[in-house]
Amino acid sequence: MLKQRQVNGNNFININNLQNIPIIKCKFGRGLHPSSQLTGGSNMPEDYMMNDQPLDFDDYANQLLEQGLLASPALLHGGICAVLVGCAEREVDYCLAAVSQALEIDIRGELAESSLHLIAASERAMADEAFEFHLFLPDDETEIGLRVQALTDWCQGFTAAYALALAEPEGSSLGEEVAEILKDIAAIAEAGYDDEGDEEEAEHSYFDITEYLRFATLNLYLDNAERAGTEG
User: Fold this and answer.
1) Burial class for 102, CB neighbours closer than 10 Å (0-12, 13-18, 19+)
2) DSSP tag of 16
3) DSSP state, 34?
4) Residue 133 in this model has a pLDDT that exceeds 50
5) Is the pTM of this model over 0.85?
């Protein structure tokens, strides 16, 4: 099961009821329910490509390490998604600079090139009518505890970068629905994996929460795009 991380010596708090968030709180971009879009296998859509090859989570992690950074690729992708859904400006160079600032990470060289491709691919996937957008996470063969950690990293990156996006002059407004989604993401960012719990239950929780985040992000992106079009 998924549990909340230990804080100030307190015991873990079970937040397994986060599985219910997709049904309760998110309208899933024009009325879609996640069950209509569930797919097995890798979390990565075919659009996440670089030089005609799929962007690989582990290769991206190695690029971070080579630059002396211990950050997860998921953290960066969370930040990228927050900038894409929260800012009126979506040029890839601007997004890269904004993510670097929000996460306090110096992104340069080969890592910058990969990040620019990931930014462009993420926006293409968000804008795709087939809802091909997915979170950039380890593949499904990775041990569940590591995948849960990557999921929380993604949420931490998203919340940090979205705070920066809100501070932009033309950034998103914090409406009631957006506030609810951000509250959920902040809660998920504090999740952890109980290795003494049921692994099958953890897999279901992980999948449900990942799907919630996927469609919540699409909701934010589509709503911001609609608002920008109306104001334009």
Assistant:
1) buried
2) G
3) G
4) yes
5) no
